[in-house]
Write a structure and sequence with these properties.
Helix content: over 70%
Keywords: Cell membrane, Membrane, Transmembrane, Transmembrane helix
Number of strands: 0
Structural class: mainly alpha
Membrane topology: Multi-pass membrane protein
Oligomer: single chain
GO biological process, one term: protein import
Order of helices and strands: HHHHHHHHH
Shape: elongated
Strand content: under 5%
Number of helices: 9
Subcellular location: Cell membrane
Number of domains: 2
Family: Belongs to the ExbB/TolQ family.
Largest sheet: none
């Protein structure tokens, strides 16, 4: 149990350093407005080139990875809506990855008290066996008292094993929960950044096509629609007239 405790403590230190790197990566301006206020097909490669020149410790962060995948997806699909869907899926994958990375910590927190309890059971079994040997070998009261003292001392040590194991598990529980929340907050900050500085700036040209039509084109389209409606209205009136004539002939 002591080995597992220090193993978990070492992993916690490594986890904390990783989270600090993720937090420092959030300070970078990954998508600077100097390249362009809008992200289009024309300046997309410039954004990717700028990201590739960031420090190595930032390249592997959640933020940079999310932005790069979003830009590359936008370059292939040329759709802001598809990119938003992909980024939402990537956010779920990152959150799931963070949760799964703490599985080993939860196993340690579960296993350490179990090992302490097993140590207590072994100690109690040994004490009971020693008590039986003391009763069979002791011929007077003094030797029996000496044997009982050693047995009760062993029982105290056995129960201390469980107590120490429970204390170790509690010591691990609080920092593990704090780090898990801290890393979850990083994922939330990445979501906010991509929504604010990536998705809102994507320009695929689909949202403004109708507004770019000149007024003359709109008028021509209206005339065409009206002409088509007149033709169909005339056909409909002809059919109605024939039906009326047929009805009079039947009556």
């Amino acid at each position: 149990e002591v080995f597992l405790f220090f193993w978990a403590a070492t992993m916690l230190v490594g986890k904390l350093r990783k989270i600090r790197r993720q937090q420092r990566a959030m300070l970078f301006d990954v998508l600077p407005s100097d390249i362009g206020e809008k992200i289009t097909e024309r300046n997309l490669d410039k954004f990717l080139e700028y990201i590739s020149e960031l420090p190595k410790n930032a390249v592997g962060s959640f933020l940079v990875t999310r932005c790069v995948r979003g830009l590359e997806h936008f370059r292939v699909r040329k759709s802001a809506a598809d990119t938003a869907t992909m980024l939402s899926s990537q956010s779920d994958l990152d959150a799931s990855s963070v949760d799964s990375s703490y599985t080993m910590f939860h196993v340690f927190i579960w296993a350490i008290p179990i090992l302490g309890f097993l140590g207590t059971v072994i100690g109690v079994s040994s004490a009971v066996g020693g008590f039986t040997d003391t009763l069979s070998s002791s011929s007077d009261m003094e030797s029996l008292k000496v044997g009982l003292k050693s047995i009760t001392g062993g029982l105290g040590t056995s129960f201390d094993t469980t107590l120490v194991a429970l204390a170790m598990a509690m010591i691990l529980t609080f920092p593990v929960s704090a780090l898990q929340k801290l890393e979850g907050d990083v994922i939330g900050e990445v979501d906010e950044y991509t929504n604010e500085y990536l998705l809102r700036r994507l320009e695929d040209g689909r949202n403004s096509e109708d507004h770019r039509l000149p007024s003359a084109s709109r008028n021509d389209m209206q005339d065409v629609v009206q002409a088509a409606l007149k033709v169909h209205r005339a056909e409909l009136e002809g059919w109605i007239g024939q039906l009326k004539t047929l009805g009079k002939g039947v009556s």
